[in-house]
Amino acid sequence: MPVSAIASPNTLTPNPNTQIRNNQEITRPKEQSDNSAVLYASLAALAAAGIAAGGILLSRGRKVSFDSLLSKKNLTIEKGTGLLKDAQGKAFSGVLEYKTEGGKYVRKYKDGELVLSGKNIDAEGKAINDKVDFYKIEYVRENGRLREISSDKRTKGFSEYNSKQILTRKEKIQILEKDIEYLKNNIADFVERAPRILEKKETLNSYAKDLQERVEKLVKRPIGEIKPENLDLNEEQIKEFKLLCLEMEKVVSDIKAYEAEYNSLLKQKKNLQNQLSEKLAELKKLINK
User: Fold this and answer.
1) For residue 218, which of 14, 50, 151, 199 sits 20 to 30 Å off, Cα-Cα?
2) Residue from 114, 54, 52 nearest 83 by CA
3) What is the pLDDT of residue 151?
């Protein structure tokens, strides 16, 4: 079987837009996935392993190692670069197909670099047919470096797609620094907004107190003792009383809204501070490597 480095599912980004290829297929829920991220490999890993893990069943039925298959075609993996080259030292471009007891395998190379590999797929990465389980791994490289690995897999009618970007240490540091700057700016914004919210709330509290005093003065008793049956008011006073009550209701509603906004602000700020601490620790770890 082809060599593949098994990656942890936690390092992969599930694609919620996995397409259904036929009426029998659905996206496998995460809890039902078995080794959803198996299928990942880098040229470096393949080169290090010597591409010789497991036997390959050729059409005549004899099992040989992948090294032997490469020797048969006068192809070699260059040490250090992992490039596949022919007898003249030229980077190989083309497709290697072979069969194993598990199915048909394909490896596609471009300028010596592995760009596609998988089981029960054609040279373009398409499934051989709709009834056979398959997987394909695609490799994207830039300037000799692996930049992205993605896999598409169908097992027992379930389809899964995963993708992972391969970042350099410098790129990781740059991304972390941007994230940290973003978090700091948002925290600073929350710190600035909090006093303004409290100020508005206090202004409304003062207004509510003034309204309460006006009501108590109108009915000549504390607001907690006001009941419909003990209101001795004329028509004009009743009208004023109703307006004051409506205004009080609105002010209380606004106060509650500011309280909710302030509490939400504190919660968001705490969450951002936790994220910032994690990012700073991650950055420190990368820098000290």
Assistant:
1) 199
2) 114
3) 93
